[in-house]
Amino acid sequence: MANLITIETSVVKDIESVWNFWNTPEHIKGWMHASSAWQCLEATVDLQVEGRFSLKLAQKGNSFSFNITGTYTDVRKPSFLAFTIDGGRKVTVSFLQTAECVHITETFEMEDETSAELQRSGWQSILNAFKDYAESQE
Rg for the chain (alpha carbons), in Å? Predict the structure, then answer.
């Protein structure tokens, strides 16, 4: 069994909006980065079981870029997603509507090359960028 890391945040929006911001390519390009030095240049989403996603992330002002691709394994709008990143790492994301906000819990399998703390920090930074982006949208 792979080691798991769980990160969380709460977004002051309704669950339908949160789901839309999380899964729509144009919105993904607005928040999918761990810091302001990075950007998401391309995002494609086929949001269904066995559907594929592809993200192209790039360092601003630099030619360095990389792709993240994978396959959705479970899609339950608007409360749950599961996917496998190409290479085999599994990720789940749950969205829970409360009276005040949507609580997001993301759990992912660790990879072997990077420390647990660096992975947690990077993924949490992306989740924080999502929160900031979603809460800034009308």
Answer: 14
